[in-house]
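Project standup — Tuesday

K.O.: blocked on the structure for the chain from last sprint. Re-posting the sequence here as requested.
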Amino acid sequence: MSDRVLGRGTLLAMGLRANLLQAAWNFERQQGLGWAYALEPALRRLYPAREQRLERLAEHTAYFNTQPTLASIALGAAARVEEERALGTGDAASMARLKAALGSTLAALGDRLFWFSLRPFAAAVGVLVAMTQPRHGWGAIALWLVYALPHLTMRFGGVAWGYAAGPAVLSGAFRDRLEAAVRWLGLLGCAVLGVALAWALAPAGEPRPIAVQCALAVGLGVGLLTAQRARPSPTRWALAFGILGLILAWRFHN
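H.V.: unblocked you, prediction finished:
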């Protein structure tokens, strides 16, 4: 029995492969092929017989879709269930139900945590640092660190957490911590955005001309309105205004 227990090396390999979860995304199975590829190290460990391993691998190429970062948690839980299946407990139907339940729940949590909370928060921190420390690209570095560190921690740690807790990974305190992270990121993001706006209006305590303040206020209002629209996306609006700002800065500098 001990030779079928997944070790840290196997979980690490799954975490590494999880970064390619969407490399083979398609409309029919969406993340299914990437899911099977990420789970393959566990299947190789659990099923030494090639025929049985390929059968399980083909089973996992079925439709699957969730938020890409939190998919690591589902991978760990699925590996735990596959470990039990290798020992004679469970079946394909229970695995399919687990993937469906975790996929939908993690998608809802992950979208709010990463797309709607952490990403805007990281952008606000990056803008604030860029305004206060305009040289050497510190703003870009701050944005990357604020987003990448939680993202990579969840990519690799999520596999281990999902494996340790199994199918019940989202039924305890772990889900409460994710919900709390969403709330705190929202509050902190508002605070950072307020400081960034204050600095933009009066850098180093010196108020800008009234025309600049009005332009900033209008820009903020337009940004808030466009952020509520599905198309064009807020990212495209931000890129468009960023390019416009660079053109204007270059024009007036010359």
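K.O.: great, moving the ticket to review. The chain has a mean pLDDT of 86. The chain is about 75% helix and 0% strand.
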